[in-house]
Amino acid sequence: MPAAFLELARGAAQKAGFPMFSPDACLINRYEPDSKLSLHQDKNELDFDQPIVSVSLGLPAVFQFGGMERSEKTLRVPVVHGDVVVWGGPARLRYHGIAPLKSGVHPVMGGYRYNLTFRKAG
Predict the structure, then answer these.
(1) What share of the chain is helix, strand, coil (3-state, %, to 5)?
(2) How far apart are alpha carbons 11 and 22 in whole angstroms?
(3) Is the pLDDT at 29 greater than 90, yes or no?
(4) What's the rounded Cα separation, in Å, for the pair 95 and 41?
(5) How confident is the model at residue 47 (pLDDT cuts 50, 70, 90)?
(6) Residue 72 pLDDT grade (very low, low, confident, very high; cuts 50, 70, 90)
(7) Order of all β-strands in the sheet with 113-119
(8) How far is residue 100's CA from residue 27's CA, in Å, rounded to a whole number?
């Protein structure tokens, strides 16, 4: 993993109260207009004590943060280029997703949204 990515993820996690986070994986998603990420849980990792760090780049989106059951009401959080969301502890297995992306053009990233998701997979 590039040193700049590692530093970003560790620093964000530390500020959110997770000083021991050391990610070993970064998932990169690219979203086109009208695409979405359905509500889901990140539960493929071995250690749920480690947080998830999510970095938004490009077009704005609406991050949906729900409860421990998919049917629970979600909190809709607008995220823009450069926003970082960290969740862990009791919230680590909450359902989350991205609402359908609206069309637009970001001055650096063009007509797309990119998301970097850092985690401790192993």
Answers:
(1) 15, 35, 50
(2) 10
(3) yes
(4) 5
(5) confident
(6) very high
(7) 25-31, 113-119, 52-58, 84-87
(8) 19
Q: Could you read off the pLDDT of 52-71 as tens digits, one per residue?
A: 999 999 999 999 999 999 99
Residue 97: CATH number of its domain: 2.60.120.590
Backbone dihedral region for residue 17 (phi beyond 0: left; psi -120 to 50: alpha; all else: beta): left
Number of domains in the chain: 1
What pLDDT is recorded for position 14? 98
Cα separation, 67 vs 47, whole angstroms: 20
Q: What pLDDT shows up at residue 122?
A: 83
The angle formed by the CA atoms of residues 53, 57 and 63, to the nearest 5 degrees, is 60
Domain housing 82? 3-119
Q: CB–CB of 34/53 below 8 Å? A: no
Name the residue with tokens 């207009």.
Answer: 33
